[in-house]
Amino acid sequence: MARPKVLATRPLFPAAQQILNASCEVDYWTQPERISKEELFRRIADKEGLVCLLTEKVNEELLAAAPKLRIAANVAVGYDNITVADCTKRAVAATNTPGVLDETTADFAWTLLMAVARRLSEGEALARSGEWKGWDLDQLVGADVWGKTLGLVGLGRIGRAMARRAAGFQMKVVYYDAVRAPLDIERGYHAEYRDLNALLSEADFVSLHVPLLPETRGLLNAKTFSQMKPTSFLINTARGQVVDEAALVEALESKKIAGAALDVYEKEPLINPGLKRPNVVLAPHIASGSLETRTKMSCMAAENVVALFKGRRPPNILNPEVLKAS
Ligand code: NAP
Questions:
Q1: CA of 325 to the centre of ligand 1 (A)
Q2: What is the arithmetic mean of pLDDT over 230-248?
Q3: 10, 15, 174, 258: which has the fewest C-beta neighbours closer than 10 Å?
């Protein structure tokens, strides 16, 4: 029997290739530059499966160019690049990679939090510059992390992994979420619920862990920044569009907040020049980027594809109704 044809927009990792190659005929995009839209549309035309990244938009336009497509497997937990309703309309399964990246992403959010509080980027620049004159009492003094209040916006998988880390730093944890967590979860994570305004006015560190949705787009904006403490820091490893970047620049300029540490941006890979300031730590969207975790994410996407073609339910399906329809 002919093996299903799959397009992977990156070579993935060897373990994931092994899973895919065992049952599919896979066209890997191996060029160093990202696949262009034209090339993507050309190659997808005869494919039944797609393994894609969050930089590729899976919407009606792409689906119209992929009449044979049965599954789009995102190598990411966030799937704001996929219009799931469009996939469902065309009976295309959509999948993501939840769970395997929680600890790695929280590790990195914590790295950013520590770096901005303790002015690591400025310190490293000074250490490398040849200008450092030695220890001094008031040199690059930062803010303590231990014992402070961490405000988690979103107490899902990654938010909870942050709460676990906060315990080791003797921090108070407050959180805001669309739905308040059950009491046993709040107790287990020592996390107290606040509405967003109360969280912003109380937290020393505000860390974002919500998906990008119409309701979370611009959740942090001019109004909400004005509620934050002038000594507080914003950490964003969620999605750039959750923050109104122009309002963030204004909040930094007018010292409404003390600093920010960012992994994600409104118009990636463009970074608003107003963010390139000493009290902002900038990372190029690498929060889930450990070799172990990126391998697991790739394998998970591969397993979703293989499951569908073997007639099983893809473990991470976002629109299970397409299975019932077929
Ligand atoms: P998750 O487990 O689904 O957690 C998200 C939390 O946000 C849930 O508790 C959810 O509540 C809550 N939420 C949804 N809509 C909300 C709203 N309007 N207001 C307040 N809270 C809301 O997701 P996760 O695995 O922790 O991942 C969170 C996000 O992080 C992903 O969607 C992705 O965009 C981002 N991420 C980025 C990186 C990176 O490389 N920078 C890596 C991994 C993930 P409900 O469950 O009730 O909907």
A1: 28
A2: 98
A3: 15
